[in-house]
Recover the amino acids of this structure.
């Protein structure tokens, strides 16, 4: 039985929820986290409910995965690692390239280098990958069957054509759920780094005799996610806009979709991978298998907040964004017995109830858009 678990990024949204569930199960948890101001605010003791939820319950190390010394301190005495620490903004990754490479790939490489060259007792590593590694995901062409579209062209989107095209005949294609054996072709620096993290862990751990599990999380949401970080997803962005009395700008035509999976389901799935030997050396999608479009997201949030929020479908777009992606979760259901318990409406109700209890954060959306405009990524 693995009793001592290290969670990198364990003060973050996913990590803190996993930590609390493991503690309930009797595990001893160590957290390595740098308390990034983008996520936790400038004074985490006051501004980060995530950090405050775990600080008196875990062995906390304020450090970075880019530091070999911090890794050595954190790994000592551990039985397993849940490696979540990463820079996570898809749009931001397209211009903070060195930072994303250093943290996501460099930090993972440092961990593995230590495990390959230093004495330790690590038996398993669970690494957080992402739906972003699939790029535009799996589609069906009426003429060519299963295809994997490349990134959409600026010239098409500028004309209001946001559909994915068959890479062979350029016809519009039909979205399918993405299976784990789908083509890996990320369209952002973030996606590339998550692909590399997963590959590094699964490849090196096999040579070291350490069990490894890769999790390709879909769009994770729920109480506790950062409301002040304008790079961590539309639920936070839209909520902050609504709570500040601002309108919502929906990109493209609003029909782009994502697979939104509730935080409790993600934590449960991750712990299954830690506990079950069937998960060893496997990769799994973690989602609901349901595609929800952005217009539905905005309308649902407005309904639960009880606000008549102006919603503008602008036709704006970000280079590197994908059109659709939702997971096929057959594998994790059949092999690990995972079953999502939270519907989108039930999850949004829990999320908005939590947001209503928080101090209204500053709306940083416009500044993030200006930043992307300057880099030529926002149209």
């Amino acid at each position: 039985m693995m009793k001592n678990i290290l969670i990198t990024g364990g003060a973050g949204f996913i990590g803190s929820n996993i930590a609390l569930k493991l503690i309930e199960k009797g595990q001893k948890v160590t957290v390595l986290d740098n308390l990034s101001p983008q996520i936790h605010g400038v004074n985490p003791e006051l501004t980060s409910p995530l950090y405050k939820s775990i600080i008196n319950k875990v062995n906390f190390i304020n450090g970075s995965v880019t530091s070999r010394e911090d890794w050595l301190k954190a790994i000592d005495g551990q039985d397993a690692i849940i490696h979540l620490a990463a820079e996570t903004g898809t749009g931001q990754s397209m211009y903070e390239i060195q930072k994303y490479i250093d943290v996501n790939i460099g930090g993972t490489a440092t961990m593995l280098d230590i495990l390959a060259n230093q004495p330790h007792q690590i038996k398993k590593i669970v690494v957080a990958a992402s739906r972003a590694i699939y790029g535009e995901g799996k589609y069906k062409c009426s003429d060519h069957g299963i295809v994997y579209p490349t990134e959409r062209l600026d010239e098409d989107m500028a004309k209001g054509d946001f559909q994915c095209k068959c890479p062979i005949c350029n016809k519009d294609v039909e979205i399918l759920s993405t299976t784990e054996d789908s083509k890996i072709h990320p369209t952002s620096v973030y996606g590339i780094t998550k692909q590399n993290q997963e590959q590094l862990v699964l490849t090196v751990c096999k040579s070291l005799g350490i069990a490894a599990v890769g999790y390709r999380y879909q769009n994770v949401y729920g109480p506790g996610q950062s409301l002040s970080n304008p790079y961590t997803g539309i639920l936070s962005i839209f909520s902050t806009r609504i709570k500040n009395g601002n309108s919502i700008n929906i990109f493209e035509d609003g029909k782009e979709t994502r697979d939104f999976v509730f935080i409790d389901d993600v934590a449960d799935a991750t712990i299954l991978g830690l506990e079950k030997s069937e998960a060893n050396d496997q990769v799994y999608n973690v989602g609901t298998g349901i595609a929800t479009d952005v217009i539905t997201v905005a309308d649902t949030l407005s309904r639960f907040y009880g606000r008549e929020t102006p919603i503008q479908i602008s036709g704006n777009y970000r280079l590197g964004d994908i059109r659709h992606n939702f997971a096929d979760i057959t594998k994790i259901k059949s092999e690990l017995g995972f079953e999502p318990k939270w519907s989108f409406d039930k999850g949004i109700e829990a999320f908005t109830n939590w947001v209503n209890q928080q101090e209204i954060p500053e709306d940083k959306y416009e500044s993030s858009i200006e930043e992307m405009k300057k880099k030529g990524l926002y149209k």
Summary: The CA atoms of residues 87 and 100 lie 6 Å apart. DSSP finds 15 helices and 16 strands in the chain. The mean pLDDT is 93.
